[in-house]
Amino acid sequence: MTATDASRAFAALLDDVERGETIIITRAGRRVASVGPVDLSNGSEVVALLAYGPVDDEFAQDVAAAREAVELAEPAWPAD
């Protein structure tokens, strides 16, 4: 669906998404966005994983090393 068509028929686009469709939005023939159903997960899988037990020391070291290696070109969250 083109961006223009999506703009003109946004309510219909949302109806399609609500029925489970994923809509690809294009601009000048290029794919620029995907609009689809929201993931209804409430995070219970993450909570269960965290409650499972202690994190392996080697894994914790790998996570810490990955965090140190990452340099963000800009802040992760834009200033309000």
Automatic annotation (TrEMBL):
<protein>
    <recommendedName>
        <fullName>Antitoxin</fullName>
    </recommendedName>
</protein>
<dbReference type="InterPro" id="IPR036165">
    <property type="entry name" value="YefM-like_sf"/>
</dbReference>
<comment type="similarity">
    <text>Belongs to the phD/YefM antitoxin family.</text>
</comment>
